[in-house]
C-alpha cells in the first residue's frame, strides 16, 4: 500500500517549490508511483494504460527488467565520469550505436539530454563550416538552451532569447501548410532564406523527421531530400533530430530520416535511447568530429557507465523483442482504427504519423480547421479517468499525441481507441 504524501499535499508543495507553467496536465492531477511495461500505477494502485510513454521516451517499457538489471548492476559496480579513464560501458554502447547508423556516421558523443545533444550538434556544424547561419523549421522543437531555443520555432517555448543566425523556414505541413503535400514548393523557401537572408553560405539545417512537440507533423514528401541538396550546395550540413523519431518508433525504419531517403551529416538522440535514463548522443562522421579535437570538449556525466549500460540494454531489448516490428504492426493498426474513428467523429480533422508516433488533430470545423482546444483537454481528462494516458501537443494545443512504449499490444490499441471513441461520443 502507498504510504506517501497525498495528492493535495504534493500539489501544494510542487506549486511552492517547483513553480512552472507546465503541468500538471490534468485538472485532477495524476500521482504516479509505479510503472511496469505499458502500464502506470497511481497511489491507489489504479492501473493506467500509458499511450504517451513519457513523451516518446519509454522505448522498451516502463522499468523493463533487462534495463533495470543493467542499471542496478552497473550502479553497484561503478558510477563515475568516463572521459578521463577507460571503461567498457561507454565504448560498448558507442560501438553498438554506431553499428545502427548508415555510412560514415560512426563517431559518438554522449550528453545528458536532447537539448545538450542539439546544442553540441549546432556548434559542430558551425565550427566545421565556418558559418553561423542555421535553418530550422517553423513549429519544430529542439530544446531549451540558447542555440536550441533559437532553433525551436514556437513562441511559447521561448523566453527573451535574441535570435542570432537562426532562420525559420516555412513548415512543410501537409494539413495546414499553404502548399499541401508538395514538398518541393516548401523547399523553395529554404533557397529563398539562403539567397535573401544569408551570405549564401550556411552552417546547416536542423529538422525532425516528424515534428513531435509540434503535433506529430510529417514533413511533406520530397521536402527533406530537396532542402538537403539546397543546403549542401550552400556548404551546410543536415542535422537530423531523432530525439522522438529514433529507435524504431516509426516502425518502418529504425531512424525517422530513413523514410525520407536521406543520410544526415549529424544525428542527435535522446529520450528513447535510455528508456527513461537521462542520456543523449550526437553521432557524426570522423571528418566532422575533428572540430572537437582542437579544444577540450568535456561533459562530466555525458556517457557515464550507468546510463550507457542502460542504453546498451535498451538496444538489445529493441532487437530481442522485435520492438521496431511491433511499432510497425501495432502502430499501423492503431492508425487504421483512428482513421475509421475519423469517419464517425467530425471533431477529428486529421490522423497522421508513422508507427508509434501518431497524432490526431481535433477541429471544431473540418473546413475552417478551427482548433478544438477545450475539447482536447476534456478528452484527455476523460480518457485518463477511464484509465488511458495520452499526450497533448501541436502549436494550437489541439493534437492528441500517441507515443506509447513500443511493447504496446493490439489489445492495448483496441482499448486506447475504444476509450477515445467513448469520450468523443459523449461530447
Ligand atoms: N528534440 C526533440 C525533437 C524533442 O522532442 C525534445 C524534447 N521534447 C528535445 C529535442 C529536447 O530534449 P530534452 O528535453 O531531453 O532536452
TrEMBL record:
CDD domains: OAT_like (cd00610). One of its GO terms (cellular component) is mitochondrion. Its cofactor is pyridoxal 5'-phosphate. It is an enzyme of class 2 (transferase). GO terms for molecular function: alanine-glyoxylate transaminase activity; pyridoxal phosphate binding. GO terms for biological process: photorespiration. The keyword DNA repair does not apply. Keywords: Aminotransferase, Photorespiration, Pyridoxal phosphate, Transferase. Its EC number is 2.6.1.44. The keyword Magnesium does not apply. SUPFAM superfamilies: PLP-dependent transferases. It comes from the Eukaryota. It catalyses: glyoxylate + L-alanine = glycine + pyruvate. Belongs to the class-III pyridoxal-phosphate-dependent aminotransferase family. PANTHER family: ALANINE-GLYOXYLATE AMINOTRANSFERASE-LIKE PROTEIN, PTHR45688. This is alanine--glyoxylate transaminase. The lineage of its organism: Eukaryota, Viridiplantae, Streptophyta, Embryophyta, Tracheophyta.
Amino acid at each position: 500500500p502507498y504510504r506517501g504524501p497525498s495528492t493535495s499535499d504534493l500539489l501544494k508543495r510542487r506549486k511552492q517549490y517547483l513553480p512552472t507553467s507546465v503541468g500538471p496536465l490534468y485538472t485532477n492531477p495524476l500521482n504516479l508511483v509505479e510503472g511496469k511495461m505499458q502500464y502506470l500505477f497511481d497511489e491507489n494502485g489504479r492501473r493506467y494504460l500509458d499511450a504517451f510513454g513519457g513523451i516518446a521516451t519509454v522505448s522498451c517499457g516502463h522499468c523493463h527488467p533487462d534495463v533495470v538489471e543493467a542499471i542496478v548492476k552497473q550502479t553497484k559496480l561503478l558510477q563515475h565520469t568516463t572521459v578521463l579513464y577507460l571503461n567498457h560501458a561507454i565504448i560498448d554502447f558507442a560501438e553498438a550505436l554506431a553499428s545502427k547508423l548508415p555510412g560514415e556516421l560512426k563517431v559518438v558523443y554522449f550528453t545528458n539530454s536532447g537539448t545538450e545533444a542539439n546544442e553540441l550538434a549546432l556548434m559542430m556544424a558551425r565550427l566545421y563550416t565556418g558559418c553561423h547561419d542555421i535553418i530550422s523549421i517553423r513549429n519544430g522543437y529542439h530544446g531549451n538552451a540558447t542555440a536550441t531555443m533559437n532553433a525551436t520555432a514556437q513562441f511559447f517555448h521561448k523566453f527573451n532569447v535574441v535570435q542570432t543566425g537562426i532562420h525559420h523556414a516555412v513548415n512543410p505541413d501537409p494539413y495546414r501548410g499553404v502548399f499541401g503535400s508538395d514538398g518541393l514548393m516548401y523547399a523553395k523557401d529554404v533557397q529563398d532564406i539562403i539567397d535573401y537572408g544569408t551570405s549564401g553560405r550556411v552552417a546547416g539545417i536542423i529538422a525532425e523527421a516528424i515534428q513531435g512537440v509540434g503535433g506529430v507533423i510529417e514533413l511533406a514528401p520530397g521536402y527533406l531530400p530537396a532542402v538537403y541538396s539546397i543546403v549542401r550546395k550552400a556548404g551546410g550540413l543536415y542535422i537530423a533530430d531523432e530525439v522522438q523519431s529514433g529507435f524504431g518508433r516509426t516502425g518502418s525504419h529504425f531512424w525517422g530520416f530513413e523514410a525520407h531517403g536521406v543520410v544526415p551529416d549529424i544525428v542527435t538522440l535522446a529520450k528513447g535511447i535510455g528508456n527513461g535514463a537521462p542520456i543523449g548522443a550526437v553521432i557524426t562522421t570522423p571528418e566532422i568530429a575533428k572540430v572537437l579535437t582542437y579544444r577540450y570538449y568535456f561533459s562530466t556525466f555525458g556517457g557515464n557507465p550507468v546510463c550507457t549500460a542502460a542504453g546498451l540494454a535498451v538496444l538489445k531489448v529493441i532487437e530481442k523483442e522485435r520492438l521496431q516490428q511491433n511499432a510497425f504492426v501495432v502502430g499501423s493498426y492503431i492508425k487504421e482504427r483512428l482513421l475509421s474513428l475519423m469517419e464517425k467523429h467530425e471533431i477529428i480533422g486529421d490522423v497522421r504519423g508513422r508507427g508509434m508516433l501518431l497524432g490526431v488533430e481535433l477541429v471544431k470545423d473540418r473546413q475552417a480547421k478551427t482548433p478544438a482546444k477545450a475539447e482536447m483537454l476534456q478528452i484527455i481528462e476523460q480518457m485518463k479517468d477511464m484509465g488511458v494516458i495520452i499526450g497533448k501537443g501541436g502549436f494550437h494545443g489541439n493534437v492528441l499525441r500517441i507515443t506509447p512504449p513500443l511493447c504496446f499490444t493490439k489489445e492495448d490499441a483496441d482499448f486506447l481507441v475504444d476509450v477515445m471513441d467513448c469520450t468523443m461520443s459523449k461530447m
